[in-house]
Amino acid sequence: MLEYLTYKFDDTPEFISTFDELPLWSASFGLLLLKHLELRPNLTVLDIGSGAGFPLIELAGRFGKSCTFCGLDPWTNASHRARQKIKNYGLSNVEVIEGSAEQIPFENDTIDLIVSNLGINNFENPQIVFNECNRVLKPNGRLVLTTNLNGHWREFYTVFEETLTELGKDEIAATLIVHQEHRGTVETITKLFTDSGFKVTRYVEDSFEMKFLDGSAFLNHHFVKLGWLSSWRDLLPQEELEVIFQRLEENLNLYSIKSDGLRLTVPMVYIEGEKV
Ligand SMILES: C[S@@+](CC[C@H](N)C(=O)[O-])C[C@H]1O[C@@H](n2cnc3c(N)ncnc32)[C@H](O)[C@@H]1O
Prior knowledge:
The protein has one domain: Vaccinia Virus protein VP39 (Rossmann fold). It has helices at residues 23-36, 56-63, 76-89, 126-136, 154-166, 170-180, 186-195, 215-220, 222-227, 229-233, 241-258; strands at 44-48, 68-73, 94-98, 111-117, 137-148, 198-212, 262-275. Strands 3-2-1-4-5-7-6 form a seven-stranded mixed β-sheet, with helices on both faces. It is an alpha/beta fold. The chain starts with 22 loop residues before the first helix and ends with a strand. Helix 5 (154-166) packs antiparallel against helix 6 (170-180) and helix 5 (154-166) packs across helix 11 (241-258). The protein is built from eleven helices and seven strands. The protein is globular and about 55 Å long. The chain binds S-adenosylmethionine. Residues 22, 26, 48-51, 54, 72-75, 78, 100-102, 117-119, 122-123 line the site of S-adenosylmethionine (SAM).
């Protein structure tokens, strides 16, 4: 069995410390957020999908003590980790609540600003979350999202689709295309805003590149094993996993020789809406 196929995510308090490594991925989106987010004093701010505390804690530090911050996430161990960091940093203007943004535990019209870094692709019901954000925001309050977009890692997905076609797995190739489409476009995200009572006041598109030596380095990379591999495995028949991944790895390696490494594009957006 290929080593990376046996890798298992283990959601225990000890394991969660590895998530302190994740901000290298999250940081690109956090930097986009920090670049465009207007800083104002005396705000009540909510970060939905605050995970292990990024960018919640960074924002609390950047905005300072006149603002109060709350992180909301259903993930127990990540929330504990965030609280530990808040305690370690000695911050008094931030707290973390365990819960879902589908039911935000705040009264109507009480929040000035809601942010979410890489949250939207992970919400099971984004429209419900947007409606909830609209409910708890004050009139003219802002909802600000940063996320990767449809087209994410298109170089990898193209080789993956070609591999499945080469192996005669056209149906799975079609499923893979659907799988990629859960990531929004600027248009679909804008629609979520407008359908829940926001007007989009600003959006900024950007992109960055993640470069790996080849497919073997990519598939064995801790971030890929930690965050992505299980979603691809779930699309494939278990008894054919090994054969499919073996060929995928070979094809990615051939592609990398021709293309000076495996360079993967990550399109992203900063998008801001105002409650109308
Ligand atoms: C990709 S992580 C992003 C974490 C962090 N903001 C960052 O930038 O690294 C997505 C987060 O959304 C959280 N999440 C998923 N469904 C949620 C929901 N319904 N309400 C709030 N957070 C949710 C997950 O638990 C996870 O922590």
